[in-house]
Write a structure and sequence with these properties.
heterotrimer; A mainly alpha; B mainly alpha; C alpha+beta; A: mainly alpha; MetI-like fold; 11 helices; about 0% strand; globular; C: alpha+beta; OB fold (Dihydrolipoamide Acetyltransferase, E2P); six-stranded mixed beta sheet; about 35% strand
């Protein structure tokens, strides 16, 4: 098919519409006036307020810690699970794998409700502990499926070759299997981190009075009264996101020449 | 791969144990508990009275709650349909681009994807509110005389939902369309099919798995994203999600919330099963 | 044949689910010999190799290495290394890293490893390739790295699973000679698997012909070629005619079929067709009882017309009695 113009036009249009709110948020973060619709001149005062806002800072730190702990738990549990399942297909294994996927297969509100009830029943203190447990529950599926996919696509004869050459089983894992699944683990971690950091619904239910995560804090702020401070926060988060994405793209290109998966045919 | 029988099994169980234990304790257990709860009664102040009752389910059949379910499903359907309409072509076209453009597009999509949904929605609040950006543009161009009170209306909520969920559909469709063997389409053109026919009889069926994943990834969250309705719809748009949240927090009625959740879960699961059996796929592409 | 058996397979049986793959393999392999397991796909040769390597476990039977029973020993504890069919080079390690892997596992000091790797690289004629990645190599180069890696640990026996299958014809012929040279140079015992009889004849000290889970004949290339014991062996190694007369079955090599005035032409035959294949002229005859005989000659034509009647025959010693395999 010859290169038509209109697909690009369509994509461009949708992308533009997608970015409009984002751009507006950024633009108005520099607005002197408190009322977003009126431009009062360029100002950085909302950024100042942002940095002085202790609640928000605390919430940010909490969210980062939460996401970090979640990633740790999810990576360990999910990767071990994926490797274990890969060794032998059993019906129990399949059932367990499906069950572990449930948290992302049902609406978050149900998960929130369910965790709230169960944690009440177990008499667990609501706070970082309950948050980590809940977040891990919906993060494991991402890590598990990413690692599983890599395992399935991996050349089995590589593990056999390592065994054949004298490597004990744990060396086989470390020298051959682990490097092969590492991209999967990293993707899973990134996804888990983003999902955890961004989570609103579940966090609302399982958080405790002392712990505020960033999304929950923003949500309550949005409901009570909107200040352009939020714009400033949004812009900062956006900047960090763009930076991280750019970084990962650069790293990807840098590793590429040295690390070409051998076709070995 | 051969290892000595006993040793291999033991190491395998060690690897699986954390995941199995966690899944039973924190996924299967809680969901079963939810079903259990839905048959119990709420206690005086907080907590649960362990006496069996069907009241919770009876209550759901009241017109108020039935209406809520109906509206939630309507919104979910509408949002999903629109997301398909907008997102499918987007993902498909993306897959057809050159390698360089694909990379750029991926980055462009990733930015909204990774940015908090709340923040992106906030941008829409700015647009929609009275005398917000949209109003200013429209009034400036003399298309409208006064402010359109778009915030806290149904269309605003729909837009918000679409906005939040679009990236998932796009990525799912893209992932599937990217693997499409274009020579199949060329073959059908060669045999006489028009562009449209070729698409409909070859490309579309083969990208169906991606579409299905996208639907699953769109429909399910749309049933639960009550904060979208909250922020953009205010008190006017009440979804099942909001009701559940209210029952838990203000109403302190765990059993009723559980019943609502149970019904919601069954309905969504049924929908997904139905869709899957119709289209016949079982893998969740777009995530990988 | 010397009496220095390095590997002994005793009555190896193996089934996968319902399918019986090995029905009782008995084989004694001599130290320093190049022996080939020859057979078509599905005959069980790869399974046999994997059992020797330890990657599969036999249902019954024993594997003895230098007298020691290693049947249940893990693959990483056996002094047996494998060159895999798809090479199985570790994609994220350099060529040097791949070759030195086995030595690294054994905690050999780094300088010793480095020296050994250099030696091996020149042995397989890949000097200077150490720092390269497998993804950057051609098929033939990868294959040589796989060989170098497998011999680095000085195993007692080297197993080669159809290593030349993915190479083009010319390269394959070249590599056959190289492998043979290598084996002689190292003095190592090579067990080679292939379905290509040309390869087997070119490289092996002995050939073990396998069919449907059993060894039909084990012998030198000469023995297997000139004195096949079954019709399967006769038709698999070289091209043979299988003639059935009464209760007996005979194998006659196509080049041994005589015609037209050459002595011993006592049988009436009709000429069915002439063709040119494999560098030789092939003439297909039909005997009065309906069986078909092919004769082969060098050159591109013979003074015989299609459709004519002719007399063919063969020297009695060229008709080898074989067990009828149904081939």
């Amino acid at each position: 098919m010859k290169q038509k113009k209109w697909p690009f036009v369509y994509v461009g249009l949708v992308t533009a519409v997608t970015y409009i709110p984002i751009l507006l948020t950024v633009v108005y973060s520099f607005n002197e006036s408190k009322i977003s619709s009126v431009w009062g001149g360029f100002s950085l005062k909302w950024y100042g307020e942002l940095f002085r806002d202790r609640d928000l800072r605390e919430a940010l730190v909490n969210s980062l810690i939460l996401a970090g702990l979640t990633c740790l738990c999810a990576v360990v549990i999910g990767t071990m699970g994926a490797v274990g399942m890969h060794r032998k297909k059993t019906r129990l294994g399949d059932a367990m794998a499906t069950a572990s996927m449930l948290p992302i297969m049902i609406p978050e509100i149900i998960l929130g409700m369910v965790f709230l009830s169960v944690f009440s029943l177990m008499d667990l203190p609501f706070g970082m502990l309950t948050l980590v447990i809940a977040h891990t529950a919906f993060s494991i599926p991402y890590v598990y499926s990413m690692v599983s996919t890599r395992l399935v696509g991996m050349d089995r004869s590589l593990e056999e070759a390592a065994l054949d050459l004298g490597a004990p089983p744990f060396r086989v894992f470390w020298d051959v299997t682990f490097p092969a699944i590492l991209p999967g683990i990293l993707s899973g971690v990134m996804l888990a981190f983003a999902m955890s950091f961004d989570d609103v619904v579940i966090s609302i239910f399982v958080t405790g009075p002392a712990v505020n995560t960033l999304p929950v804090k923003i949500y309550t702020k949005l409901k009570t009264g909107v200040t352009p401070e939020i714009n400033a926060l949004a812009t900062v988060i956006l900047a960090v996101t763009v930076l991280l994405l750019a970084l990962s793209a650069v790293i990807g290109r840098w590793r590429h020449p040295a690390e070409r998966p051998g076709a070995d045919r | 791969m051969k290892l000595q029988g006993g040793k291999k099994d033991r190491s395998r169980w060690l690897l699986l144990a954390p995941m199995y234990v966690f899944t039973v304790l924190f996924v299967i257990g809680p969901i079963l508990y939810m079903f259990l709860l839905s048959f119990l009664q709420r206690a005086e102040v907080w907590g649960v009275d362990f006496s069996f009752t069907l009241d919770n389910y009876k209550r759901i059949l009241e017109p108020l709650y039935l209406k809520t379910f109906k509206e939630s499903f309507q919104l979910a359907f509408l949002s999903t349909a629109l997301v398909i309409l907008i997102g499918y072509p987007y993902g498909y076209f993306m897959a057809r681009m050159s390698a360089a453009w694909k990379k750029r597009m991926m980055l462009l999509i990733m930015v909204p994807f990774w940015t908090s949904a709340l923040i992106r929605l906030y941008g829409w609040i700015i647009v929609f509110r009275s005398n917000g950006t949209l109003d200013q543009v429209l009034m400036g161009l003399h298309i409208t005389g006064g402010p359109l009170k778009l915030l806290y209306t149904y269309p605003a909520v729909v837009v918000g939902m679409i906005y939040a969920l679009l990236p998932f559909m796009i990525l799912a469709v893209y992932s599937s369309a990217e693997k499409l063997d274009w020579s199949l389409v060329e073959a059908s053109r060669d045999l006489g099919a028009s562009s449209w026919k070729a698409f409909w009889t070859v490309s579309f069926p083969l990208t169906l798995p991606g579409l299905l994943s996208g639907v699953v990834l769109t429909f399910i969250p749309s049933m639960g994203l009550f904060f979208v309705a909250d922020l953009l719809g205010g008190n006017k748009i009440v979804l099942v999600g909001s009701v559940i949240q209210e029952q838990l927090t203000k109403g302190r009625n765990q059993p009723f919330a559980a019943a609502l959740s149970a019904v919601l879960m069954i309905l969504t699961t049924l929908m997904i099963r139905l869709y899957r059996s119709v289209t016949g796929t079982n893998k969740l592409e777009g995530l990988m | 044949m010397g009496n220095d058996t390095i590997l002994h397979l005793r009555n190896i049986k193996k089934s996968f689910g319902e399918t019986r793959v090995l029905s009782g393999i008995d084989l004694e392999i001599q130290r320093g010999e190049f022996i080939t397991l020859l057979g078509s796909s599905g005959c069980g040769k790869t399974t046999t190799l994997r059992i020797i390597a330890g990657l599969e476990s036999p249902d019954s039977g024993q594997v003895l290495l230098e007298g020691e029973d290693i049947t249940e020993l893990e693959p990483n504890r056996r002094s047996v290394n494998t060159v895999f069919q798809n090479y199985a080079l570790f994609p994220h390690m350099t060529v040097a890293g791949n070759i030195g892997y086995g030595l690294k596992i054994r905690k050999t000091p780094k300088d010793v490893i480095a020296r050994k790797v250099e030696e091996l690289l020149s042995l397989v004629q890949l000097e200077g390739f150490g720092p390269r990645m497998p993804g950057q190599l051609s098929g033939g180069q990868r294959q040589r790295v796989a060989i170098a890696r497998a011999v680095a640990g000085e195993p007692k026996v080297l197993l080669l699973d159809e290593p030349l299958g993915a190479l083009d014809l010319k390269l394959r012929r070249q590599m056959q000679l190289e492998l043979k040279r290598l084996q002689k140079q190292l003095g190592m015992t090579f067990i080679y698997i292939t379905h290509d009889q040309e390869e087997a004849i070119n490289m092996s000290d002995r050939i073990a012909v396998m069919n449907r889970g059993l060894l039909e004949q084990v012998g030198t290339p000469n023995e297997v070629y000139y004195h096949p014991r079954t019709s399967y062996v006769a038709s698999f190694v070289g091209s043979a005619n299988i003639l059935r007369e009464g209760q007996s079955t005979f194998a006659i090599r196509t080049e041994n079929v005589l015609m037209n005035g050459e002595r011993e032409c006592t049988r009436e035959a009709a000429v069915l067709e002439k063709s040119f294949a494999g560098g030789q002229l092939r003439i297909l005859f039909r005997l009065p009882d309906g069986q078909q005989i092919t004769a082969s000659r060098y050159g591109i034509d013979a003074d015989i017309r299609e459709g004519s009647a002719c007399r063919i025959g063969w020297r009695p010693e060229h008709a080898v009695a074989v067990a009828d395999d149904g081939q």
